[in-house]
Design brief:
membrane, flat, about 70% helix, 10 helices, about 0% strand, Cyt_c_biogenesis_CcsA/CcmC, about 350 residues, C-type cytochrome biogenesis protein CcsB
Length: about 350
């Protein structure tokens, strides 16, 4: 009997494992695109939030000038210091709870969009993992998206509790840039791992590295804001901006130090775990591989920062510069070391 058309097509209508994996990878890409849209909206809203803070600072400064003029007859009023100078509440805008309603609303909306974008990005990474049936960081594209997800997730966890809406634009922008470059330059189709990477240490060693990079990134962003805030405290500008609405430079420096400390501890584990994995994979704890060397360079620079920061009488500004040099080394380790042929060794995550 001649088989029916339905019988002939039946095997083709049943999805194979490969087809299912491709569907998951396609859904991961869609979630990634959706995440970028949400991050773009969040970035714009964070910028609008900072604009509202600048307006509040300007309004506070104007009110201070008016109070000084009213009290210029010789009395020390609420708007002047005991020395006759203006007392601006703008410097403690967030700390004293005097943030304007417009600024607060925009910051909260931006934060909600960041939560959504981060959830979509984490979902994209998870779907990619299901598609390839392994930890989804076996090539440079997966490496970049997973790192961006770690940064977004770390910020999302810390932002609401610490009221870090003012920091959002400095975190979301590099995350969005990383995702754009990963799609435009680094994209690699879902596939099998290199034999050397087929180990449970991939999930442990690289997973902890991602978390530490998340803390390093946020600490670096706060560190750069600290340097700007400190400069403006030392030399007050003629026209103030949202910078004057941020926490004091001392508070920013302490926060950056705390985050760098957590990241440094995690990076120490990353270095040790990598050595153990190298022993299992290559027969030696240390091979002078470029990736190993740069991992150690990062650890050394941040160790110098920790030591300098803990030394009595140290210049905190110089210590912060050392921390930022360490973050530059992190960027080099995650980009040039993986992509430039000069650095290619036993580690090769590029997939290119």
């Amino acid at each position: 009997m001649t088989p029916s058309i339905a019988t002939i097509l039946a095997p083709q209508l049943t999805p194979t494992v490969d087809e299912a994996s491709l569907a998951l990878a396609s859904n991961a890409n869609m979630a990634l695109y959706a995440s970028m849209i949400a991050y773009t909206l969040a970035m714009l809203m964070f910028a609008w939030h900072l604009a509202a803070r600048s307006a509040q600072v300007a309004a506070t400064e104007t009110a201070d000038r008016e109070e000084v003029l009213v009290g210029s007859a010789g009395t020390t009023g609420a708007g002047s210091s005991s020395a006759g100078g203006p007392v601006s509440s703008a410097a403690g805008l967030t700390e004293s709870g005097q943030e304007s309603e417009a600024s607060r609303q925009r910051g909260n909306i931006a934060l909600m969009l960041t939560y959504l974008a981060t959830a979509l990005l984490v979902g994209s990474v998870v779907l990619r993992g299901f598609a390839v049936a392994r930890p989804p960081w076996g090539n440079m594209f997966e490496f970049a998206t997973a790192s961006a997800a770690a940064v977004g997730l770390t910020y999302s966890v810390l932002a609401k509790r610490n009221r870090w809406q003012w920091l959002g634009v400095f975190i979301v922008s590099p995350v969005l840039l990383t995702l754009g470059l990963s799609l435009a330059v680094l994209y690699t189709e879902a596939g099998e791992l290199m034999p050397a990477l087929k180990s449970y240490w991939l999930a442990i060693h690289v997973g902890v590295a991602f978390i530490s990079v998340g803390f390093f990134t946020i600490a670096a962003a706060i560190g750069m804001v600290y340097l700007v805030r400190l400069r403006r405290e030392e030399k007050p500008p003629a026209k103030r901006s949202f910078i004057e609405s941020l926490p004091s430079s001392a508070a920013l420096e302490r926060t950056a130090y705390s985050l760098n400390m957590v990241a440094f501890i995690l990076w120490t584990f990353t270095l040790i775990a990598g050595s153990i994995w190298a022993k299992q994979a290559w027969g030696a704890y240390w091979q002078w591989d470029p990736k190993e060397v740069w991992t150690f360079v990062i650890w050394t620079v941040y160790a110098a920062y920790m030591h300098g920061r803990a030394t009595a009488g140290v210049d905190l500004r110089r210590s912060m510069y050392i921390a930022l040099v360490g973050f530059v080394c992190v960027i080099i380790n995650f980009t040039l070391v993986n992509l430039v042929s000069t650095f290619v060794g036993m580690h090769n995550y590029s997939g290119m």
